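User: Hey, quick favor. My workstation is busy. Could you predict this chain's structure for me?
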Amino acid sequence: MPPDAAIDAGRWRVQPARAYVSRAKLYGVALKPGQKALVLEADLTNRTAQSDKAYFNVFKPDGIDLPDSTPMIALARDSTLTPELHPGMTERMAYVWPLAGNAAVPANLSFGVTAEIFKPRDNLYGTPGWFNPYRLGTVTMPVADLPESGS
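Assistant: No problem, here it is.
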C-alpha cells in the first residue's frame, strides 16, 4: 500500500502520516533512562456509529524486536492517552513503542495493517459487531531519527 494512501481497515479508516525515532518524552509517554521510542503518527477515522478505542492492533511494526508489542497511543493534538474516537471524526494519533536505546531501527520500516469484518449478527449472541481481525496489508514508511531535543 502506498504510504500516503487512506486505507479502509474495517471499523477504521487510517492514513499513516510519518514515522520517527525519538529519545525525548513525547505525547505524555515517559521513556525510561536508556530508552528511545519508535513513533508512528496516523490519521484515524472511526467508521462506526459509536465512540470506540479498539485501535491498538491496527498497526504493528514488522522486523523489529519490540519489548512490548502493545503501543502507548496518544491523541496528537493534546497528548490524551487512549482516547475514545468519535464516529466520523478524524484524529491524528501517535502510536509509541518504547525500544532499548541501542535497538537498530531501519531507515524504512514496514507496518502491518490489521482490519476487522463487520457482522450484522454474530454466531454466539446474534448481535452486530466487528470480528475476525486479519492482516490487510503493509505500509512501508521512512523513519526519521529525531535529535535529542524532540520533534
